[in-house]
């Protein structure tokens, strides 16, 4: 209990004042990590089945790109009120309410038989996912301050481990020829179990005061938050491309059979997860600014290798470099934004996310359209530019703590 009380002053600097915390910093860290893990599993369950949707519905690259537009569209819709809800109800209540809805929305995707049905369910998946995401990252910033160490990367590392686990589960179930509906319900039930077991261990907050209630519904980002948002945009455009198109790239360009194409996605996620846990150490050694610059360079190198030499060995190595490069960028950006003293954590994260999520809105569809006009290989080459842009933009930020 002494360790808990010692962290109260630090925790008071986050979204609103906390109530008495019943969980130790380690328990809080594990609980938050579990929620990140399950959100990663849910997302990977969808992403790893994209080739199946594409094949079963007979979609070409442009048609798939248009449908993929629906997921970030749902995420963008909630940007205008997700921070307000998180500030009003607290990230703990919001997370316990939205996490089961996100898992349930996953199961609806398997009911799709046409492109428009898949698009409609993806909008719902995006809405519930972003409400969950804002609450989870706000809880993550609070948990980092409460723990007293830069552990935000480890939270996102838990998401990546969950993503890798979800991809591997899908790989096994695809080869066992288990249907998507059963697959997605297995994941949903695991998610419900996690919420029941770990939900009470999250950090709790009092209701904000009247002044906080009268803040604007949505505020445009300014100053450093704009630069952070553009950096997040470049990173998320890369991530979105890898999430939605990596398995198809390995199937169409690297020429792997359908039941092995997930290897490309899994290799990317493996290094993304590893890099996020390693990021806690690297931030302490190099600082956030230098690490952001290095990360952008690694993204460009990895993408260039995968495009220039699309054989299985080099492509896997290139995808692994991309995973390492993007691994710590968004966690660092969220941590920097969430600790901005001028803006509440939930609102600052939403400001940055509102820019970053436009990458998910335009990135994956752009890949599909360019691929239809030329080839999937050349469309991936466009993404390598984003890594160089990240390195350049970081130099424009004068001070990063």
TrEMBL record:
The keyword Transmembrane applies. It comes from the Bacteria. Gene3D superfamilies: MFS general substrate transporter like domains. Keywords: Membrane, Transmembrane, Transmembrane helix. It is found in: Membrane. The keyword Nucleotide-binding does not apply. Its main location: membrane. This is MFS transporter. Residues 224-401 form the Major facilitator superfamily (MFS) profile domain. PROSITE patterns: MFS. It holds the Pfam family MFS_1. It is a multi-pass membrane protein. The chain crosses the membrane at residues 67-87, 157-176, 182-203, 224-250, 262-284, 291-309, 315-337, 349-370, 376-395.
